[in-house]
Amino acid sequence: MKLHPLTPCFFALVFLNSCKKPGQNENLTEQLAKEVAEEVKSAGNAEWKKSDTPILPLTVGDHWVYQVKLQVPANAQSPGSPAISQDFVRKRTYKGKVKPTGDHPETDCFEIEATGSPIEREFVEIDDEKVQMRGSEIVGAAQQSPTWLDPAVMLVRAGVMPGESLPPLQIKDPRTGIEVIRTIQVVGRETVTAAGRDFATIRILMTGKEGKDSNLEMRKTIWFVPRYGIVREEKARYINDTLMLKETMELKSFQLAKDPDAVKEP
Question: pLDDT tens digits, residue range 82-97?
């Protein structure tokens, strides 16, 4: 019979417990249990890291098309204001390395397009094992500096474990002067169906307030798939725990040069 690599740890735990006094047994059991738990965690992390790498291999022109639903509850804008519900399409296209406005280096860039909205650029740093957020800007916005993160802030990393916290995001918005703080946590790994496929996703939760003493709170959940990118996103804003706005975005189709089976737009 072939034993699992961790089996000897459990045998040692049982054997040593039988040779120690009761008080020593408790301490030893706790110590060995922690060691076994760390081994199990490390093994799981290594396996996920292997399967997650490369985290997001891209080719210029790769794009994703999302169905977006925007909802504003009745009375959210002002007393008596009607509820609003809008459906539209949003397209994200990888443009390669692009230099942002101002004194910032060339960075991986996505252009975001939606009918009735100005084109936005999202800047990220991507290597084999991680995706880090860098900033954003509106294309053609005169004399407006991009919102820029320095240092970059982790969005996702190969091998992240459910329950793991990532470094927080903290920045002062140059357009409003408001200090923005976001905590980032890996909620778990779960299967999500989108664009006619089942994806093994990493679910990431970002929460925080718009300003230190603000009563305006943002909650954003991202379902990220290694090698494919974002397949679903939910964003909500609250004032004193009352929902003011909700936006859901789900992948409708995509085209990746390194995925010949991608679901194409009709």
Answer: 999 999 999 999 999 9
What proportions of the chain, in percent to the nearest 5, are helix, strand and coil?
A: 15, 50, 35
From CA 217, how far away is CA 249, in angstroms rounded? 19
Which pLDDT tens digit goes with each residue over 16-39?
Answer: 344 545 555 667 677 776 655 555
Distances (CA, A) of 12 to 18, 32, 34, 43, 168: 10, 9, 14, 19, 40
pLDDT > 60? residue 232: yes
Tokens of 38: 């760390």
Can you give the pTM of this predicted structure?
A: 0.82
| Cα 38 from Cα 41, distance rounded (Å) | 5
Helices 7-19, 22-52: inter-axial angle, 10-degree rounding: 170
DSSP annotation string for 115-149: TTS--EEEEEEE-SSEEEEEEEEETT-TT-PPEEE
- Say if residues 202 and 186 touch (Cβ distance below 8 Å): yes
pLDDT of 2: 38
Ranges of each domain in the chain = 7-52, 63-255
How buried is residue 42: exposed, middle or buried, by Cβ count under 10 Å (0-12/13-18/19+)?
exposed
